[in-house]
Amino acid sequence: MQFNESTYSLPVAVIAKGDTLTLEERHAFRQRLKEDFAANDICIYPSSYEVEDSEEASLNSELEPFIPFAVIGSEQIYSLGSKRLLARKSKWGLVEVENPDHCDFIYFRNMIIRTHMQDLKEKTDQIHYEAYRRARLQSPHQYAESNI
Predict the structure, then answer these.
(1) Is the pLDDT of residue 148 over 70?
(2) Do 95 and 87 touch, CB atoms closer than 8 A?
(3) Using an 8 Å Cβ cutoff, are 33 and 79 in contact?
(4) Could you tell me if 56 and 120 are in contact, meaning their C-beta atoms sit under 8 angstroms apart?
(5) CB 102: neighbour CB atoms within 10 A?
(6) Looking at the predicted structure, is the pLDDT value of residue 147 above 90?
(7) 48-107: per-residue pLDDT in tens?
(8) From CA 41, how far away is CA 108, in angstroms rounded?
(9) SS3 label, residue 14
(10) Going from the N-terminus, what domains does the chain have, and what CATH number goes with each?
(11) Measured between alpha carbons, how far is 38 from 95 in angstroms, rounded to an integer?
């Protein structure tokens, strides 16, 4: 997929309330979203961006099956035996936020905070901010100051 330099953002695709879908529905929805992204030339981080490092390419290929990330959110902490879990309660039991069998939050968090943080900063600064700055300098009348 060709990167469009006129884009000023670095989108990371996330499916909210991932626990409302069955595994089959989640897989089909992921495929539909990927097709929509490709049809509309939307570059999703990290899979749509070229990498020069083989280690980063390996990490990206491991993440590819989980993009877009199906996550769940909860602020409730439940006790299950001696363990304290961040989870959401349903009729069927607890849906654990940090359980990879329940959602992709662990992969999402690891990508954002642990493995790709520096790359996200660099791409945002070097590609997206610079594209925005160039466009702003070339067409200052399009970006008139709003009432502040």
Answers:
(1) no
(2) yes
(3) no
(4) no
(5) 19
(6) no
(7) 666 677 887 888 888 888 889 999 988 889 988 898 988 988 888 888 888 888 889 999
(8) 22
(9) strand
(10) 14-139 (3.40.50.300)
(11) 32
Strands (E), 31-113: 69-70, 77-80, 83-90, 93-96
Amino acid residing at 62:
E
Rg (CA), the chain: 19
- What DSSP character marks residue 65? G
Q: How many residues does the chain have?
A: 148
d(CA 28, CA 112) in angstroms, rounded, equals: 24
Report the C-alpha dihedral over residues 44, 119, 61, 65, rounded to 10 degrees. -40
Output the six-digit token pair for 4. 């469009």
**Which residues pair with residue 84 across a beta bridge?**
79
Q: By percentage, how much of the chain surpasses pLDDT 90?
A: 18
